[in-house]
Amino acid sequence: MQATTLLNRLARAIAWRRPGEPAPAPARKPEPALGAGLAGAGQPARDYLWRAHLAGHPAATLERFAGQLRDSSAATLRRRLRLVDPARPGPVRLRAARGDQPAVPLAQIDGTTCGPMTVVVARAVADPVYAWWLTSAGDAEAVARRIVTEQRRIHDQANRLWPSRLGTTPWGMVAVLRQELPATRYQWWLVDDTDPASVRSALDRAGAAVAAGHPVPVLVGARVPRHWVLLLSADPAGGALVFYNPTGRTVRLAESEIAAGRLAGLSWPHLQAVVVPRG
Q1: Which of 57, 93, 185, 228 has the most CB within a 10 Å radius?
Q2: What is the pLDDT of residue 39?
Q3: Phi, psi at residue 24, to the nearest 5°?
Q4: Model pTM?
Q5: What does the alpha-carbon distance between residue 10 and residue 32 come to, in Å, rounded to a whole number?
Q6: pLDDT tens digit sequence for 183-238
Q7: Per-residue pLDDT for 252 more than 90?
């Protein structure tokens, strides 16, 4: 059975799309705490504070986060808030709040948690308050434990009915993203990678989303869906896309490679679904 047929049947069986679901709420006016924090911060801190606002944090959280940003050096901000650098393909490692601690791999804990690890990184990319918390543990072992705990928590949320040993479904991914990133409404789209138009449409949607600051979970596989990865950035001019693979690496691929089913570095060869914001 083709993977797209299998996913379509499963989706219809659980009514994954709700009729009449409301559109995303319009952007809110900036909180007073955000304005005060922006006034006293440098450009990198201003960018992170604005992203925290867009992630939906209340005034009290923004005010506290603004103070943490102002008290931190540019190097500290990079280490604690830029968990994955799209410009540096290769192994991804995370450092604790204390800079003298060894780095720990930012990777899934077993063969069933690629989906949860994708969500962890997606939230860390979109929500700098969450990224700051992930790296707030003082030593490397504590950071590693926090990453493991988060994967298990998210795995439980995403698989309330679906057996966890079978991984995370597209509708489970959408449901958990709604909880982890409530300011953004996600939906999933099937991709038939034997149809160039389907691949082109999926890449266009995914590229537009990452250009707007939204990381995009991507489902890959062979005959059936097998593995989640995260699209981090897209270069419209060069046609290159950068993915985080939860095995613990960033991978750069040309769009032509994806269209041809050559997903070197993403564990499986075929693009099967993308999860993008609505609208």
Answers
A1: 228
A2: 56
A3: -55, 145
A4: 0.84
A5: 46
A6: 999 999 999 988 999 999 999 999 999 999 999 999 999 888 889 999 999 876 66
A7: yes
- Asked if residue 67 is part of any domain, the answer here is no
Q: What is the DSSP string of 66-129?
A: HHHHHTS-HHHHHHHH--S-TTS-EE-EE--SSTTSPPEE---SSTT-HHHHHHHHHHHHH-HH
Specify if 254 maps to a domain: yes
Q: Residue 205's closest CA among 220, 191, 193, 194?
A: 191
Question: Residue 51: inside a domain, yes or no?
Answer: no
Contact 181, 55 (CB under 8 A): yes
**Tokens 């997903």, residue?**
263
Element (H or E) spanning 8, and its range? helix 3-13
Domain holding 172, by residue range, is 72-277
For residue 278, the SS3 value is coil
CATH of the domain at 118: 3.90.70.10
Any idea which of 18-27, 36-45, 83-92 has the lowest mean pLDDT? 18-27
Q: Which long-range contacts (CB under 8 A, 24 or more apart) does 28-37 make?
A: 31/58, 31/59, 31/62, 32/59, 33/59, 33/60, 33/62, 33/63, 33/66, 34/59, 34/62, 34/66, 36/63, 36/66, 37/62, 37/63, 37/65, 37/66, 37/67, 37/69, 37/70
Q: What DSSP element (H or E) covers 227? A: strand 225-235
Domain count, the chain: 1
pLDDT of the residue at 37: 57
Contacts of 222 (CB under 8 A, 6+ apart): 268, 269, 270
pLDDT at 29 over 80: no
Is 162 part of any domain?
yes
For 50, the token pair is 């604005």
Each residue of 77-115: b (16+ CB within 10 Å) or e? bebbbbbbebeeeeebebbbbeeebeebebbbbeebbbb
